[in-house]
Amino acid sequence: MLRLCHELPRYSLDMDFWFFKQVDFDGFYHRLEDSVRQEYDVTDVLNKFYSILVEIRKKAGMPRLKIEIRKTVAPPGSSEEKIAFSPHFPTQVLVRGFTLSQMCRSKVLALMDRGEIRDAFDLEFMVRRGVALDFNQEERQEIIRRLKGFKKKDFDVKLGSVLLPEVRDYYRKKRFAYLEENLTFEKWGS
Questions:
Q1: pTM of this prediction?
Q2: Which fold has domain 2-98?
Q3: Residue 143 class from Cβ within 10 Å (0-12 exposed, 13-18 middle, 19+ buried)?
């Protein structure tokens, strides 16, 4: 959603979905599996306890796309209608996606759980878009600890490989200075 609806300047490694309304998860899994096999080379498909996982590619030798669909309904008020688009194609699609505030909360949990640099990048992007950092002091400290733990190689390789060229050099030099400043800044008069 961040890339397709909010112009996040990085490429995605996977796509994550939640259900908007209650469905028969097993029935959905079988319909999805049948559908993707008609158009794609399916390299993995699993109907797990908490989620449905599908890994596809257009043909052998091409990059794979991992799709995960959580077997739960999105919390009420956490999603909204959005327009998904790409600067490379004229098609626009109306979709239902999480609000930026909900995505921010999810990114913080992902950053604290798996510690991936792309989650920190996404979090800084949302802060730059005006999402309020509504975290307690312990969460702020844990995020800052994660940010300070990233090495030069993380910025050059892990993050650099998924960023658009126009922002790659900035993050190599500045790292997450903007996000750190926002996490440590105390309001005037406090």
A1: 0.83
A2: Nuclear Transport Factor 2; Chain: A, (3.10.450)
A3: buried
